[in-house]
Amino acid sequence: MTFGENILKYRDEFFDDLGKLLSLESVDGAKPEECKKALDFILSRAKDFGLDGELVSEHSGHVQLGEGGKLCGVLAHLDVVPAGNNWSLNPFALTEQNGRLYGRGIADDKGAALVNLYCLRAIKESGVQGKNTLRAIYGTSEETGMKDMDEYFKAQPLPDLAFTPDSEYGICYAEKGILQVEISTPSNEAKVLSQFHSGKAVNAVPDLAYVMLDSSSYDEQRLMRFADASDGSFEFNYTIDGLMIISRGKAAHACEPEKGFNAAAALIDLIANAYDVEDIGALCSFIDYALNCETNGRSFGIKMKDSVSGALTVNLGVVHIEDGTSKAKLDIRYPVTVNGNYIFRQLKSVAEHSGISAEIIHHEKPLYVEKDSELIELLSGAYESVTGEKAELYSTGGGTYARKLGGRGVAFGPNFKGDDIHMHNADESVDKENFLKHMQICLQAMYRLYTE
């Protein structure tokens, strides 16, 4: 028996608490009161378990066990991306169906966040005496730039060793850089296009977009012919304000945009085929020219890859054109051996050549941890003791709290390769048996951090 199996005796109480946590629509920016409730819930339950909890900032806090020795941390976030469209179940409830657990945040990252708390409880109630200080650290703005951890680490020291269960197993030793850029024009000067809206989060592939056009019957027939010949899914509606075209796609995480179908890019491609630049405006024309439906940055001149972390990706996450506003947001994940400032200079040069402004709205530099480090050896041992298998070392385009840890932390779990969890998509879910396995691995890893 491994120490990690101790977590299973709490499973009924855990899933009851998980249902309560998933019911909170904790979307940072849109629902700040729900984010606060999620953090308060964790700290309240910590108190119920006899653990020491502390609210460190408006968006962060921790629960601690022990004192002295190394400071070891396990980081998770309580905010989620918006529910989006096309759910077959209530996104803000825990639903078990056909051996899977459903709900927004079950995989990213509320499920793991609650596991961390229950692991502290299990260690405390086992009576184990630790050598180190163990903290479960929580934030509520991971999906919108990680300002929560910036605030937290202004007030608290960096852990000596840490991991964040916010990716996949085995162990993620490298994370691509994240460069989020807003491109814009001073106004919407389009003659035909009056509105274009798509996306709520720059780090997700939008599954819905719509445009309003002041079009003629000839234009409409031409648009329909182009729509029939395209890979997109379009709906034409006639309104008092003109022709509305709705584009439907498939959501995905921005770190893997090729796994989705970008509704905004498809719609821009459609109207760009039917209209001239002055009809749809400079921004849409530029997106069609410099991005189109690509996800590799080729037309921007930034297509690249390295042997450590793979290829650069680009996601068109948000488009907003209406009245005097004309802007879009791009999410770029670039290889760990590349300088992000070079990528932005190249993108900005291409944009300015077309009269488009470009501005960095968020930049997270890449993460790289040596494969033979003490932390990776410790986590590898925990994984192998529970699963009987060696932990694979891998890189990702995803962005986790690990990049806030100065090389002292990595992403480790909670999801398993091959499990289609629908990250940032409708019907987010995890295999229940995999989730129970994660609970054991996480407890084993936290036990080792606390005692070794």
Task: Provide structural commentary.
The chain has 452 residues and is of the alpha+beta class. Helix content is 31%, strand content 27%. The chain contains eleven helices and 24 strands. Strand 4 and strand 5 (100-102) form a beta hairpin. Helix 1 runs antiparallel to helix 3, helix 5 packs across helix 6 (263-274) and helix 6 (263-274) packs across helix 8 (282-290).
Average residue-wise pLDDT? 95
Structural class by secondary-structure content: alpha+beta
Number of DSSP helices? 11
Oligomer: single chain
Q: Report the count of strand segments.
A: 24
Query: Uncertain runs with pLDDT below 50, 5 residues or more?
Result: none
Note the main sheet.
9 strands, mixed
Our Rg estimate from Cα atoms comes to 23 Å
Shape: elongated
How far apart, in Å, are the first and last alpha carbons? 19 Å
Helix content: 25-40%
Strand-residue proportion? 25-35%
Topology readout:
Layout: H1 11-22, H2 32-48, E1 52-57, E2 60-65, E3 71-77, E4 95-97, E5 100-102, H3 110-126, E6 133-139, H4 147-155, E7 161-164, E8 167-168, E9 171-175, E10 177-184, E11 193-198, E12 208-213, H5 217-229, E13 233-239, E14 242-248, H6 263-274, H7 277-280, H8 282-290, E15 305-306, E16 310-311, E17 313-322, E18 325-334, H9 340-353, E19 357-364, E20 367-368, H10 374-387, E21 393-396, E22 409-412, E23 414-415, E24 429-431, H11 432-451
Parallel strand pairs: 3-6, 3-7, 7-22, 8-23, 9-21
Antiparallel strand pairs: 1-2, 2-6, 4-5, 5-24, 9-20, 9-22, 10-18, 10-19, 11-12, 11-17, 12-14, 13-14, 15-16, 17-18
Helix pairs in contact: 1-3, 3-11, 5-6, 6-8, 10-11
